[in-house]
Amino acid sequence: MLTPAGLAKVRLELSTLPKHAKKGPTLLLRILEFLVPPQRRAPIGSGPCVDPQNGLLVMRQTHTGRLKPWTYDLNARRSGPDWKEHNFV
User: Fold this and answer.
1) Which of 1, 15, 29, 34 is the most exposed place for a label (fewest CB within 10 A)?
2) What counts of helices (H) and strands (E) characterise the chain?
3) pTM more than 0.85
């Protein structure tokens, strides 16, 4: 996947959105500050990522064109290989 390149301080936040409360703990990703401004690697609209901005959640575009926050569902991932590889269990 081609995404904007750069370097940023970010924060993972536990979602308080009602739709995530039903599924279980879900993380959101917020850009706190860019240390190196992002440089686009691909033309606008060629990938699912939306240009990130300081202070805002990282957003992605769905196949229908709607914007939604990037999420990481902890319940869905906790039994997967990434979780075990990083010794989170």
Assistant:
1) 1
2) 3, 5
3) no
